Sequence to fold (88 residues):
Amino acid sequence: MEQHKLIDIPPSNGKYTWSNKRIGKNNIKERLDRILIQENKVAEFTLVKSKIIHTIGSNHKLVVLSMGNLEKQGPLPFRYNSSWDNKE
Fold:
């Protein structure tokens, strides 16, 4: 990981991606599934996050990566409502 300058993007909505689905003290949960991305790629985006998607029928959960650039919208334009003309 260090040699290739990879960083781990932890999920924003949970910690564990795998469970043995046992009940009680025999239940084991781990974070086995990860998203690794190069540092320079992360720097290209203003939004980088991962999210766990719960699945049925598997002991692994999906991990989805979202990347994008948030555009600044700037100040909202002033809008004039003609009904204001009738107010004192």
About this structure: The radius of gyration is 23 Å.
